[in-house]
Amino acid sequence: MVGERRLGSIEISPVAIASIASQAVLGCYGVVGMASRTIRAGLAEKVHPTDTPRKGVDVALVEDRIIIDLYVIMEYGVRVSEVAHNIMQSVKFNVEKALGVAVAEVNVYVQGLRISDPG
Predict the structure, then answer these.
(1) 36/13 Cα distance (integer angstroms)
(2) Number of folded domains in the chain?
(3) How far apart are CA 109 and CA 33, in angstroms?
(4) Residues 41, 95: Cα–Cα separation, whole Å
(5) Which structural domain range is residue 100 located in?
(6) What is the pTM of this model?
(7) pLDDT for 54-82, tens place per residue?
(8) What is the CATH number of the domain that holds 93?
(9) 53 in Cβ contact with 15 (< 8 Å)
(10) Maximum Cα interatomic distance, the chain, rounded to a whole number of Å
(11) How buried is residue 51: exposed, middle or buried, by Cβ count under 10 Å (0-12/13-18/19+)?
């Protein structure tokens, strides 16, 4: 268009994307918490919403593509594949809604299953 000026650019930090993704994951049914990428001695570290939003979320920006890896702990007894699919859809929807940018991939890695406290 003639006369159109570019006002500047917008850069979105992977930390901001991770925060949005983390909140979406923790809102999903069947998710007990987020986990570290590595499991120490076979045990996943449960991450609460008040913990760092990046823990349990890896964001890669590759050639203008957003790739999100999520490390989660699920409730024992849930259908893992169904919960993982719901996580993928929720994260993709929430990140795209917030940023207005397409998410190329959402990968879910189940790091553990936990039985919630009955109390």
Answers:
(1) 20
(2) 1
(3) 12
(4) 33
(5) 14-114
(6) 0.81
(7) 689 999 998 889 999 999 999 999 999 99
(8) 3.30.70.1350
(9) yes
(10) 66
(11) middle
